[in-house]
Amino acid sequence: MSLTLRTREIQITKLYPLAISRGVSTGSRNLFVEIEDERGNVGLGECAPGTGFDDTLAAIAEQEIRALFAGGIEGFSVQKVWQRGYEMGMNPSALAAVDMALWDLLGKQANMPLYRLLGLSNQSVPTSVTIGINPVPVIEERVPDILRRTGGKYLKIKLGNPEGIEADKESYLAARRVAEPFGVGFRIDANGGWNVSDAKHMIAWLAEHGCDYVEQPLARGEEAGLPELFSNRPLPIFLDESIREAKDMIPLADCCDGINLKLMKCGGVTEAMRIVATARACRLQTMIGCMGETSVAISAGAALGELFDHIDLDSQLNLNPDPCTGAQMIDGVVTPTDAPGHGARIA
Description:
Layout: E1 4-20, E2 23-36, E3 42-47, H1 57-70, H2 78-87, H3 92-110, H4 114-117, E4 128-131, H5 136-150, E5 154-158, H6 165-179, E6 185-189, H7 196-207, E7 214-215, H8 226-230, E8 237-239, E9 258-262, H9 263-266, H10 269-281, E10 285-289, H11 295-302, E11 310-311, E12 324-325, E13 328-330, E14 333-335, E15 345-346
Helix pairs in contact: 1-3, 2-3, 5-6
């Protein structure tokens, strides 16, 4: 069966700029991929950049995707297409867009929601909603708006402030104070913004101030410090940037409590399933997060929701506007639709 490839760039604008330890993102140019079969079924995928590649990734991704298709993918399984793209050295976000579109296409060909095609239900835990690194007055203004507007049950607070851990403490306490009327839980993501000494101090301090877990305390490349943090830790430690593929987990399985995968980071649904299986074999908890994604990529992630202990699929809630429709926030849970495939479309 012959396949037709189409691509389209869309400028994405964030409602609130997202500041993390590595920089600030106000929006991005996201690349959307359509793969159409001879019967008119169209699979839709999305390539969304991480912080620092907001306006440069789409052009690179399009070149890589067209090179993959130029080699011919007709008659290949999704797994085989993913492996070919991986061996070509494709950017994982570009590979994720193709992989996502092919899974969406399979769902439409089978007339099944993606979650059912994967043998899952549409049940999952509530998502975190995120507040970036900001001055205290900004946090005091934005946190109530985010929680009121989204109905989120958990607040993820970005720390790793370049001004140091005292600024982190002020931010955390401010967010907790204004979020208290909403009755939410609290999580922390340092995005690798601490050294070992500061991380040890902050994890102990956060444990005394109602935090559920700490994500990526040390920068990627600084994993040698993890065993010291992991020993006698008062809070669970999750790794994000340190783990991009399933194989990255093996040497770190004994110095973390769980992993956070992202479709854009690992290359899509195909590798995400392998990461979850590896994490379970290593007796680790699982989390799925996102980059600057619209409802397209979020819907693909939501289709896997039942596999995760924690969910952080909220980027679509901070777009002005989201140019796409798909999975809906229902009582704090990002819930996939029952439409065939991942159920998302460009509005």
